[in-house]
């Protein structure tokens, strides 16, 4: 059975994985600081780290061209 906390966690995780700005996620969750949101939820998915690496690589090589 899912709890309200489980649904809140899912909501936050899906938004972050979808690329929603962490500031927006923090505001939706009622966190006073973005750091709280990132500390609590960004560790959940390795996809977030992989996506960051891909975006950096694309930006870097686009600038080098």
UniProtKB/TrEMBL annotation:
Q: Which residues form the signal peptide?
A: none
The lineage's top-level taxon is: Bacteria
What the entry lists under Gene3D superfamilies is as follows:
Intergrase catalytic core (1.10.443.10)
InterPro entries in alphabetical order: DNA_brk_join_enz (IPR011010), Integrase-like_cat_sf (IPR013762), Integrase_catalytic (IPR002104)
The record's Pfam families line, in alphabetical order, gives: Phage_integrase
Q: What does the record list as coiled-coil region(s)?
A: none
* Residues in Tyr recombinase domain copies: 1-54
Name the keywords, alphabetized.
DNA recombination
Could you cite one Gene Ontology molecular function of this protein?
DNA binding
Please give the biological process terms from Gene Ontology that the record holds.
Answer: DNA integration; DNA recombination
Record-given protein name? Tyr recombinase domain-containing protein
Q: Which organism is it from?
A: Pradoshia eiseniae
């Amino acid at each position: 059975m899912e709890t309200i906390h489980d649904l809140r966690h899912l909501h936050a995780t899906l938004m972050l994985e979808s690329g929603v700005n962490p500031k927006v996620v923090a505001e939706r969750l009622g966190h006073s600081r973005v750091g709280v949101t990132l500390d609590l939820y960004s560790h959940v998915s390795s996809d977030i780290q992989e996506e960051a690496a891909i975006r950096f690589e694309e930006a870097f090589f686009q600038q080098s061209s």
